Amino acid sequence: MPQPGKPLFLARRSYRRRRLMDAARLLPVLGVVLILLPALWVPAQTPAPDTGRGGIYLFAVWIALIVAAFAIARGLGPVLDAEELPEQGARDPLGTPD
Amino acid sequence: MGFNSLVAVCLAYVIMLFAVAFMAERRARRSRLRFLRSPWIYTLSLSIYCTAWTFYGAVGYAARSGLEFLVIYLGPTLVFVGWWWLLRKLVRIGRTHRITSIADLISSRYGKSNALGVIVTLMSVVAATPYIALQLQSVTLSFDAFAARSPEGWALPDQGATALWIAGGLALFTILFGTRNLDANERHHGVVTAIALEAVVKLVALIAVGVFVVWGLGGGPVDMLARIDASPIAEWPLQPGRFAGLTFVSAAAVLTLPRMFQVLVVENVDERHLATASWAFPGYLMLMSLFVVPIAVMGLELMPEGSNPDLFVLTLPLSQGQGTLALLAFLGGFSSATSMVIVAAIALATMVSNHIVTPLWLALRRASTRAPGDVRGLVLISRRLSIIGVLSMGYMYYRLSGGSEALAAIGLIAFVGAAQVLPALLGGIFWRGATHVGAMTGLLIGFAIWAYTLFLPSVGDAGLLPQSVLQSGPFGIGWLRPHALFGIAGLDPILHALFWSLLFNALAFLIFSMLSFPGPLERLQGVAFVNVFDQSPAARSWAQGGVEAEDLLSMAQRILGAREAQHFFQTQASAQGKEGFLPDTTSPFIARLERKLAGSVGAATAHAMIAQLTGGSAVSMQDLIAVADETAEAKEYSATLEAKSEELARVARALRDANDKLRDLSVQKDSFLSQISHELRTPMTSIRAFSEILMEPDLPDALRAQYAEIIHEEARRLTRLLDDLLDLSVLENRGVQLNISVVNLHDLLNRALQSASSTRPERAFRIERDFPTEHMPVFTDTDRLVQVFINLISNARKYCDSEHPVLRIEVRKRGKRVQIDFIDNGAGIAKHSQKLIFEKFARLTDESRAGSAGLGLAICREIMANLGGTIDYLPGQGGAAFRVSLPLRRGREVGAN
Fold first, then answer.
1. Mean pLDDT on A56-73
2. Confidence label for B656 from pLDDT (cuts 50, 70 and 90)
3. pTM: predicted TM-score of the whole model, two decimal places
4. Which residue out of A66, A81, A88 would a mutagenesis test of the B interface target, given it has the greatest number of B Cβ atoms within 10 Å?
5. Are B139 and B170 in contact (CB under 8 A)?
6. Would residue B409 count as lying in a domain?
7. Can you tell me where the transmembrane regions are (chain B) (predicted)?
8. What is the C-alpha to C-alpha distance for residues B389 and B383, in angstroms, rounded to an integer?
9. Which of A90, B426, B430, B549 has the greatest number of beta carbons closer than 10 A?
10. Is the pLDDT of residue B707 over 80?
11. Which domain, by its residues, includes B549?
12. CB nearest to A73's CB, from B230, B243, B276
């Protein structure tokens, strides 16, 4: 029975995972834009000193990227678990036929 | 701190590294890999990205050009947060194809071309040599810094000697732990663990210095910000082109630097580790960069004019009298330098030995490869020599260049050189149209431009190019000046070289790829690489030119070592269902053997060696591809048809079974009423008859007592029947209250046997048990379980028709469940009845019907369902056999639903 406020949707979880994969692919693009942003702002032409502010900005972007990557990695963990084949020769260092 | 104690600290640290590496190797040998396979070790080992160039150089870089140094770490951050797109594929390819180095990847992708392997190897060696020199220089400089501060004023013997000692020590470590064995996939657990430890040391050291600078000298973060704004680097002279270009080149380098490829792809043991590294490695980089600007600012503020900003990390604590902190910083720098050199030497040595030395040796000895000779020994020796060679080249470069001042410049030059592999790498794994010719042209052009515009002008003080060439171009051709190609002057040299080299590299790669045709093997490899997620590794077909398994074994022994090779052949043979060591030389077997060999000597060499024995590879490759395409389609079609019809048959069978059972049940249900009335009526009739007789007035007392006894007996039978029926209905509705307690299974069986012995006590019944297996605690409703056992044992006593009846009780533990089998040696139960025996009132023969209503097994089944277990008839045991299976620990909840 569909709960009120939740649209009816089948395979909700795998749909969510595929969107998470999209997010994982887009995250570096977002990162590039944010990191190259100071180039538009051209700090050398502003009157105030910029190293402090710029540093804080870049580190903030950095931390945000790390947090986002952490969230995505957590979300994609089950996908990897399902895909990961046991390493050949984990027990038997000589390897087994694949 | 005297020179001797500094050396002692260094030595102690090095001995600790040896011990850690040694212990890790020992654990790996014992297959106790859990700790070694942690994603944290993997992430930490990636930190060899942060070399001494980061540890010392980043501060110097910041002191010279402000925040620009950050892009060197932001580039890799972008690559890692985008791991799903690129790194995952790279690692999957690396593991599927047993890639041993970046040169191996390129060579393997473009049709196992050894020429490409050689090109990439040479480029890597050339690009890495200055970088190794830089590490030696930084350690030497840090020794110097201590020497200059030392109160005793000890004079350092000789800078060259220090660097020589370091290079020698590193060569020893690398040879000891990097060339222990030709392990499949080239994994070095000892080295990786030691490097992970070094990663922690350098991070702690840099953060300790940073904390001291911000809170000890700078007065906290807020004051620190004010100091930054007041410092000479307050203004951020951002050059957009350089900013973007360096971000790009550092992102490229983290993929293509041989040492990064080694830890990222080759040493990866589990793809899932990437998920952790995707955020943890950027986090590591962020922490490494966090205090760089504050250290640079305080260094500029406090240190005398003209001090080398590259050494602020060390000299700042020294000048403040913080000897211990300075020592920690020294160890951090030492760690950064050594870990980079070790991994770079391993990666380069693997490449040199796999792509240059071994193929050369094979070519020289082409005629006599079948003769015994130890390739394994050769590869190991060539690898060891290569390590020594790589380190000596680094040392020579250091002596020749005389130790240039700015560390950062050398690092960037190496980065741009390494980035030349990028088009061939990305094109190779994302574009099936990329060809060998395109890759080779692109690499050569890119490499040539890099060497001409960036590398050669940087070597030594004046550069290897004459001053006149730099000023006015070769032969006076102005538009060919190294720093202003095509007359575009005024660009930053790094950006200039990066732009032109990668532009022409990528263009040549694309154009020549489009214009040329790939070879058959190349096409196969292209598909296997680009679609690595869609398929299992492509089985490369080998024309079976009558190669003998024995020849292959003798060759494999020389590469893998006798024990490993024999084990591999043996497992392959037994997989084919054969005895002994020699499997049939089928294509899949040869392909597997080739992959196995590739893990040790690289794809190209492995391919060449197999080709020699099997008598040529590409003979019928094109035909094979065409045939394979058609057959694959047909096979797929018939496979789906087959699967579908199988599915249908399965469903039909299940339906038929269910239908039969339903019909039987309906018959049973019909007879249920008549049976139950019959069952109730029989005792009722006798009770009525005898009670009527009892009503006669003049009955002898003896008869009266006898008749009363019969009435009582019949009433009891009636009660028992009704009890059973009630019990069954309660059990069926799962309404039963379980009384869970713990009991030894052995005691339980004893109890059951004792209780059941009253059934047909006149028969001599032999019970076979295995006491030791029976001793185990069981958490369950013991009374109910015993009821099941009694029922089964009584049934056996009752119905076993053997002359010498034997009941065997076997107890087996299966994970968290226990199975108890009751097997007798009677005639067993006919097949058509096996399904019915657990139904109500199911009685098979009439001979023993006295005293039984046919409810026993039905009750047993319901009890077992309530206990969370099952009871089944076990056919084919040479008698009636019942298997009771139940969990060792029944939960306390009531009922099974």
1. 89
2. very high
3. 0.64
4. A66
5. no
6. no
7. 6-24, 40-63, 69-87, 115-134, 160-179, 191-215, 279-300, 340-364, 385-400, 406-430, 437-455, 494-515
8. 10
9. B549
10. yes
11. 545-616
12. B276
